[in-house]
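Handout, section B. The chain below has 177 residues.
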Amino acid sequence: VYIGNNLNGEVNEKDSIVIVENNFSSKAIYTLSLVVGAASICLEMVWIRITGLTIGSGYFVFGLILSIYILGIGLGSLTLKKLSPTDFRNLLLKTTLLISIPFFATPYLPLFISNIRVLFISNEPVYYFFHGIVYLVFLLLLMPGVFYLGRVLPYAFSMIDKDSNDYSFKCGVVYFL
């Protein structure tokens, strides 16, 4: 594909940069990025462990949860339209609430998934159907919170001071954190 690329090297005009006026310092944005990133990875690991305890340890457990996280974070970031500091505070509140709700279902998950497993006979086609149902259960449980987690990073990028000479460095730090 690269060798057959017929682009002539012309660059289109870039879109205007979205600037969100806010009172957050760079350190506050960095701290928020670190906390949200760490919480996201920790929650992903917790849900991988909970899923392993619920349906049994297998090679597909990591991929199941990771795919939900990638889908949710991607869709969340794609659906951002309006950016304002007030919306950002509401976003953080919604995110915190929605990522905590699935933990109330955690004590009931093993029994619920076990009951679904018992409904099916043990043969190969039903095995894949069972895991499809498990995927849907976890998708419905985790997607709302992960969707809002996907909105935090684009908001953080939009609140960085874009007038300074080290803008690319600041974006790199936010992405790193």
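Note. DSSP finds seven helices and no strands in the chain. Compare this with the example in section A.
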